Fold this sequence. Notes:
Layout: H1 20-24, E1 42-47, E2 52-54, E3 62-64, E4 69-80, E5 83-91, E6 98-104, E7 109-114, E8 116-118, H2 143-146, H3 148-164, H4 166-179, H5 183-215, H6 226-233, H7 241-254, H8 276-300, H9 327-331, E9 336-338, E10 344-346
Antiparallel strand pairs: 1-4, 2-3, 2-8, 4-5, 5-6, 6-7, 9-10
Region (Disordered): 237-278, 300-363
Family: Belongs to the CWC16 family.
Protein name: CWC16 protein
Amino acid sequence: MQGFNMGRYVPPDQEGVTTGNQIAGKHPLGARARHLHTTGALIVRFEMPFAIWCTNCKPHPVIIGQGVRFNAEKKKIGNYYTTPIYSFRMKHTVCGGTIEIKTDPQHTAYVVTEGGRKRDTGEDKELQPGEIAIKPFARDIDPAEKDPFSKIEGKMEDKNRAKTEAARILELQERQKRDWEDPYAKSKQLRKKFRQERKGLENAQAKGDALKDKMSLGIELLDETEEDRQKASMVEFGGGAASAAEQVSRMSRLRPMFEQPEEKPTRTTPPWLRTRKGDLIASRKAAWRRELIGNTRARIDPFLQGATHPSTWKHQVKKKKTVASSKTATSSTPSLRDDPSGTELDSSTDAPKRSLVIYSDSD
């Protein structure tokens, strides 16, 4: 087994002063830097940035696809302002010819300078007067990709926004730090609240299960809401059997024996334009009309006057009292008579008489 740093022995008297590569006269990159001292080239792994045609291949050029890798000699050949320009020389394994590609910092691209040419896809072709560039995916291209300055502007906007919102971020951090200054107290408060809510949920679940067992329901019951409580409070249930019997007996006494059905008015409104609200109002009016007819019959029928129900409407007459000014005035009015109930009635006005039933033997 080969140990670490094998072949780079450093004597004890030179440790910390020099390295094994310097003593052996080797470069740290090894064989990759074998031309670095002569031509200044470094062997690197280069990947083809786009498809090219190899012009060294005979009789017909051969295409080299995008992404094919080569061992290329990387060498600095110049500068564009402060940006270095590098060239990459590689050997095509099919024909043995040399291909050279260099960088173009001015246009942010690669340029084939020797041994080949870039495959023409029509994108880099300059438009002639009257020509229109047609690209199938022109709508999907981000404007930032076309203009590099737009990316820089976006970064500047983000920086300005970060400066303006820095105060807000610090405020939120201070508030969070203040709220969680005592983690144990906050955790205790949250656990207590959760415990109470859990007990309430358990009680509601137990009530729901009991109701499902009682009603033999196989469905999931929802939680009770305030709207459900309001609707339940507005529901009125009828009385017991006794109240129902009294109501039936009262209606049987007040209803005529030979009741004629009411004639329903002809409606001019078509059925599809009628509303449920209108039908409900009409039914309420009919119920009030029947109740009014029953109360009137109970008032004028002599056979029902002594056996009227306590809930039957009764007409009350307001009594007027007259005070005699003197005895002479009392004696001078022979047409007035005393009523046994204490009220004085005028003889000129006929007193209401009760209806009498005459039975005849001739019948």
